[in-house]
């Protein structure tokens, strides 16, 4: 039985894709660059917003307008990250049920800290700890284990009985690097075939399935 659950945010608890795409394309337009489709942005996310913009901008960080475009994206996204973003169906009830069972809950994300904290506070009062990208504070982003270890520290628990829940290859690597088992969700930004290719072994198709999985024998 798992007592601590560490969640990814984008593609796992929240459907943030449309707002990420809107801010990406706003920044690209401001810099006179071609816009990206939703499916392109879906492929670009998972490694933090800087990597998202690096992938969206022609020539990436070598483009002389990269830093300006990235700054524009950050300003726009902080103002518009709740325009269409919402929890996946059933996620709120899932979190309430887990808290009623006494589970400890945290979020670790490669989204920058301010947006991560604001979104979690707004949508998920059941989440006790929310950690975003903060490499300036010496915490390396996923797939490094730093954010997971920091979440466990803030919860006051060790990794015994902890499990990681995410939707991507980065989440699988993060769990592996942290020494945690990983449960992969199938409603997020990556499909089952992709996740299988990256070593996923445990899946849930709907949020309500998580309770029975985390309460099963280790």
Please give a quick description of this structure.
The protein is 44% helix and 15% strand. With 218 residues, it is an alpha/beta fold.
Please give a handful of descriptors for the protein shown:
218 residues; two-stranded antiparallel ribbon; 6-stranded parallel beta sheet; alpha/beta
Description:
- The chain has helices spanning 17-30, 38-44, 49-56, 66-80, 91-100, 113-123, 146-155, 169-178, 192-197, 210-214, and strands spanning 4-7, 14-15, 86-87, 104-112, 129-133, 162-166, 182-185, 203-204.
- With 218 residues, the protein is of the alpha/beta class.
- Strands 5-4-1-6-7-8 form a six-stranded parallel β-sheet, with helices on both faces.
- The protein is globular, with a radius of gyration of 17 Å.
- The N and C termini lie close together (6 Å).
Question: What structural class should be given to the helix and strand makeup?
Answer: alpha/beta
- How far is the N terminus from the C terminus? 6 Å
Largest sheet: 6 strands, parallel
| Rg over alpha carbons | 17 Å
Residues in β-strands, percent: 15-25%
Arithmetic mean pLDDT: 94
Strands in their spatial order, largest beta sheet? 5-4-1-6-7-8
Helix content: 40-55%
The count of helical stretches stands at 10
Order of helices and strands: EEHHHHEHEHEHEHEHEH
Q: What's the β-strand tally?
A: 8
**Stretches with pLDDT under 50, minimum 5 residues:** none
Based on Cα principal axes, name the global outline.
globular
